[in-house]
Amino acid sequence: MKIAVLTSGGDSAGMNAVVRAVVKVGILKGCETWIVREGYEGLVRGNDHADGSYPEPPTVPEAASEAHHGHPTNLLANLRFGDGLLLRDGTGDHRGADGSGNSTRTLAGRYLVRVGWDDVRGWFAEGGTLIGTARSAAFRTPEGRTEAAFNLIKEGIDAIAVCGGDGSLTGADLFRAEWPSLVQRLVDQKRITPEQQARHKHLRIVGLVGSIDNDMCMTDLTIGAPTALHRICEAIDNINSTAASHSRAFVLEVMGRHCGWLALMAGLAAGADFIFIPERPPDAKTWEDEMCETVHRHREIGKRKTIVIVAEGAIDGDLNPIRVDKVKDVLRDRLGLDTRVTTLGHTQRGGSPCAFDRILPTLQGLEAVNALLEDTPDTPSYMIGVRENKITRVPLVEAVKMTKAVAEAINNKDFKKAMSLRDPEFAQ
Ligand code: F6P
Questions:
Q1: 255 Cβ below 6 A of ligand 1
Q2: Is residue 15 within 8 Å of residue 225, measured between CB atoms?
Q3: pLDDT value at 427 more than 70
Q4: Which one, of 14, 6, 13, lies nearest residue 133 by Cα?
Q5: Model confidence pLDDT, tens digit, residues 60-89
Q6: Cβ contacts of residue 152 below 8 Å, gap of 6+?
Q7: Can you tell me which atom of ligand 1 is nearest the CA of 228?
Q8: Which residue, 129, 142, 176, 369, could crosslink 7 as a Cys pair with Cβ 3.0–4.6 Å?
Q9: Cβ of residue 166 lying under 6 Å from some atom of ligand 1
Q10: Span 123-128, average pLDDT
């Protein structure tokens, strides 16, 4: 089996550990391993070699490659951010993957790259995604997906592991479902042979969830969420000392477009007086009173500081967004608190993964390769999750459907349903 791994959607800490795990486990299980640069966009762009022949990873110096199952290696080895891995349209990039200026090693015009053991060495400690991610408009079109199919077949790849959020995983499932028709179209266009069609009847796909928001149903945790939470806690710890010094209030905006997990958990882990989350919006008419009463009570018992956390997607019961500036004004005007706003932004998303965001992707990467090896046209495409500390496989479509149902329930003001879908125990 030839496996390609790609990362898609917003980056999250732990995505590199996914790539590392899929590549290493893949090699150990006798597969050929590839990465796709720049997510689905890379799949659509493919490799720029007209005759369909893949230029074997050129000028591979290390004899070490042979030591690892004979895999070609080191095209990517020792790469760090931006080293020749940037998305480029033309062929003008001749810096080479190793920054050497040796054009034979450049990755320009090549989005699918065969990788070996050494290429992913130490990747679990790196933040972001070293193979890049991009929002691909082209992949959303049937033409784009036909190109993607062609590019995979051209390289003989028959399995892909996708690490991304719900949108990315929906794309993966659609791609797998329409694969036979895409392949037929390529035969009709005489771009692939009937032999290639016979060999690529089915595309094996598995999804791993990379999202700092922890916003996917049917899994307890998404890759990157623990690290983001850790960043928020550190930020609140820092803010606490300055807030207490001046006896100030701080309103913190944290990420979480449709999900309040980061806000809620940060409130528990670092302490907050009041929290706003999308799944449990406060009454539009009374939230100001409610917040002021709570903060006032805490002040009365001697607190010198006030922390209010607002999830990015927080709303009130009438679906109006809760704005941090509005919260600040209320605290200032009604309680006379000297109040500041801090928006943590992308500091939550970047940086080195915490230990759990290395362990989880490593264990899930192993399960992902197993799922790919067992994938048949009769099995559903799986999403690898974690439930009660056990690595799980769940049908990808169901998880995505349920995640979308949460957003729908919120839009319909059925907040109880939204919470129950997120956490089945909430319903009891
Ligand atoms: O989906 C993760 C997330 O971090 C959201 O919380 C946030 O709204 C969004 O990504 C921001 O993404 P970007 O800046 O890449 O558009």
A1: yes
A2: no
A3: no
A4: 6
A5: 333 334 444 444 444 554 444 444 443 333
A6: 4, 43, 112, 158, 160, 200, 203
A7: 4
A8: 129
A9: no
A10: 94
The predicted model scores a pTM of 0.88
Q: What is the pLDDT of residue 95?
A: 35
**Pocket of ligand 1, candidates 213, 253, 344, 403: which has the most ligand atoms within 8 Å of its Cβ, to mutate?**
213
Cα-to-centroid distance, 212 and ligand 1 (Å): 8
Phi (first) and psi of residue 121, to 5 degrees? -60, 130
Compute, in degrees rounded to 10, the torsion defined by CA atoms 371, 137, 210, 200: 10
Query: Please, what is the end-to-end C-alpha distance for the chain in angstroms?
Result: 45
Directed axis angle between helix 396-411 and helix 166-188, to 10°?
A: 130
- Cα 226 from Cα 415, distance rounded (Å): 25
Q: Which atom of ligand 1 is nearest to the CA of 348?
A: 4
Does 280 show up as a binding residue in the annotation? no
Say yes or no: CB of residue 257 within 6 Å of ligand 1.
yes
Could you tell me which residues are beta bridge partners of residue 341?
251
User: Which atom of ligand 1 sits closest to the CA of residue 10?
Assistant: 15
Helices of type H across 49-119: 64-67
Burial of 143 (0-12, 13-18, 19+ CB in 10 A): exposed
260 lines ligand 1 (CB under 6 A): no
Q: Give the span between the Cα atoms of 154 and 353, in whole angstroms.
A: 35
Please state, in angstroms and rounded to a whole number, the distance separating the CA atoms of residues 302 and 367: 51
ipTM: 0.94
Residue-wise pLDDT for 243-266, tens only, equals 999 999 999 999 998 899 999 999
Instruction: Please give the pLDDT value at position 23.
Output: 96
- Taking residues 332-345, report their average pLDDT: 98
Phi, psi for residue 253 in degrees, rounded to 5: -95, 125
Using one digit for the tens of pLDDT, what is the confidence trace for 14-38?
999 999 999 999 999 999 999 999 9
Catalytic residues: 213
